[in-house]
Each structure stands twice: as structure tokens, then as C-alpha cells.
Design a protein that fits this description.
By secondary structure, the protein is of the alpha/beta class. It has a single domain, classed as Spore Coat Polysaccharide Biosynthesis Protein SpsA, Chain A (Alpha-Beta Complex). The protein is built from 10 helices and 13 strands. Strands 1, 4, 5, 6, 8, 9, 10, 11 and 12 form a 9-stranded mixed sheet that branches. Strands 2-3 form a two-stranded antiparallel ribbon. It has a two-stranded antiparallel sheet with strand order 7-13. The mean pLDDT is 93.
């Protein structure tokens, strides 16, 4: 079995719930702590040993230019200034960004239908000859061990699998917001019910979210003509088709999935990150207690 070497990170959307800030910067460049969301996704890939990352940016915007500048600009002027000020240690976070594995930024094909599957199709040429590849939606963050490594580890144990998807148990009151997982008797994926309108329509309490390991066979089903709910091109529809032709492994996350998909959940995700990942967490707790 070949090593899983590539990952696709999607950020192809106009993020209208975040306007006006997203008219200037892509949503995945809003900060969580001192890092943009996109960097945290890249770090998850690095942790998993990924060698090349393809970021799919929103077309007809400055997103591609912004990502390329962030991950590739050496910022020599900033380094020179900090050196003169005797603050060169502050440049270390920039050096970390510049040390990441190969990052290629592309734009989503604007001719494709709306949907979370279209960014993956846009990156097909980069991964079609791979044994398998990882997909991360930048809306979704994992606190703790990243899912990318867990997906790859699971695939190495099940090399005949058509795909591996991450799952997390969620309370009943949010099932209508997500893709809910139905399992076969052998514990592999049967299908995914996207946004069930009532709890009784959900096949389980397991939620699927934006962490997948896919084989190139997915492109046999992830076709522009195969739109589903609301006329969108859904990745989970293609994964469900894969499950009809072989095993799709469902692996529970050992971390905690949090979403930044809208301003409210972004704030809660940011707060959770600050309270668990920063050296000023106690100061934030004190401020909250006093106010």
C-alpha cells in the first residue's frame, strides 16, 4: 500500500453569514487564538505526515492570493524590522508557517454546481493517481488529536476500504443540522441521512462532518450531474455510493469536533480553543467570572 501523501482543504464559499469581513478575507482566515482557522487545518495535516496540501479557494475573489501570501511570503521586511528591534523571537510563528510541507492553492472551478463536493472535484487532477487522500472542510476544527492521522491509521488497518469517515456522537437536538450515519451489521457505513427533519428520521446519534479519507474511486460518483438535496453536489452522496461497492470505515474521533460555520459557533469554538490551548486561559476565565 502506498503512503497517504496528499490532503485537500476546502474553503470554497462566500460565507455570507460572516459579511462584511468576508468580502475582504476568506472565512478560513479568521483567527482562532493567534492563528487563522486554515493554519490549524494545515497543522492537522502536518501531524498526520501529509506531504502536499491542496487548498481550494473561492473563485472570483482574492482568496487564492491571500492564501498564497500567507503560506509562501517570506516577509523579509518584517524579519528585518524585528531584528532591529531586538524582537526576533516574535518571528518564530512566521518561520513555522514557512516550514510547512508543500502547499498548492487553487480556485474552485466556477462551472461546477454549488455544494461541498465541488471543491474536491476541482482538485481531482492533484489526487486522481493517489492510493487515497484526506479531505478536510475548514469549517470544522478538531481539538485534541487531529482526525487526519486517525483516518490514515484506520485506512492502513483496512487497506481494501473504499473510504474512511470520521464520526462523533451528538445530542438529539442538533441532528437536523448534520449528516447522520447509518451503519451496516458489520459496523461499516450503510448510508448518511443529510439533515433529517425529525429525530425519528435519524438512523443513529453518529454525525458525519468534514473529515474524510477517500480513494479516487469517489470521482466515479462525485459528478456535476449527481446533485442531491437542494440541488447541491454533496460529498456524502458520493460516499454513500462507495459504500454500495465496498466497505466505508466509520471511525470515531478521539478529539472534539467544533464548527466555525457561523458567527455564533465560531465564537464558541474560539472561546473553547482559548480556554484549552492558550497560556492566557486563566485570565479569560477570570474575566468571564467577573463580568
Amino acid at each position: 500500500m502506498k503512503k497517504v501523501k496528499k490532503a485537500i482543504i476546502t474553503d470554497a464559499g462566500f460565507a455570507s453569514r460572516y459579511l462584511p469581513i468576508t468580502k475582504t478575507i476568506p472565512k478560513a482566515m479568521v483567527p482562532i487564538g493567534a492563528k487563522p482557522v486554515m493554519q490549524l487545518c494545515v497543522e492537522e495535516c502536518v501531524e498526520a505526515g501529509i506531504e502536499e496540501i491542496i487548498i481550494v479557494a473561492t473563485p472570483n475573489t482574492k482568496s487564492k492570493e491571500i492564501y498564497e501570501d500567507y503560506f509562501h511570503n517570506k516577509s523579509d521586511n518584517v524579519r528585518t524590522l524585528l531584528e532591529k528591534q531586538g524582537k526576533l523571537d516574535r518571528f518564530k510563528p512566521v518561520e513555522q508557517v514557512l516550514s510547512f510541507p508543500k502547499i498548492t492553492v487553487i480556485e474552485q472551478d466556477p462551472s461546477l454546481p454549488y455544494g461541498n463536493g465541488s471543491p474536491i472535484v476541482s482538485a481531482k487532477e492533484f489526487v486522481k493517481d493517489e492510493e487515497a487522500f484526506v479531505v478536510l472542510y475548514s469549517d470544522d476544527l478538531i481539538l485534541g488529536q487531529g482526525d487526519a492521522k486517525i483516518l490514515i491509521d484506520s485506512y492502513e488497518k483496512n487497506p481494501e476500504a473504499k473510504a474512511v469517515i470520521a464520526a462523533q456522537e451528538m445530542p438529539e437536538d442538533v441532528w437536523h443540522k448534520y449528516g447522520m450515519i447509518a451503519l451496516k451489521d458489520n459496523g461499516t457505513l450503510s448510508h448518511i441521512v443529510e439533515k433529517p427533519k425529525t429525530p425519528d428520521l435519524s438512523p443513529s446519534n453518529l454525525t458525519s462532518y468534514g473529515r474524510y479519507l477517500l480513494t479516487p474511486e469517489v470521482f466515479d460518483y462525485l459528478l456535476p450531474s449527481n446533485t442531491g438535496l437542494d440541488g447541491e453536489l454533496w460529498t456524502v452522496d458520493a460516499i454513500t455510493e462507495l459504500a454500495k461497492h465496498g466497505d466505508v470505515i466509520v471511525t470515531k474521533s478521539s478529539g472534539e469536533w467544533i464548527t466555525t460555520g457561523d458567527p455564533k459557533n465560531y465564537f464558541l469554538a474560539h472561546l473553547k480553543y482559548v480556554l484549552t490551548k492558550t497560556d492566557y486561559a486563566d485570565d479569560v476565565r477570570k474575566f468571564i467570572a467577573e463580568n
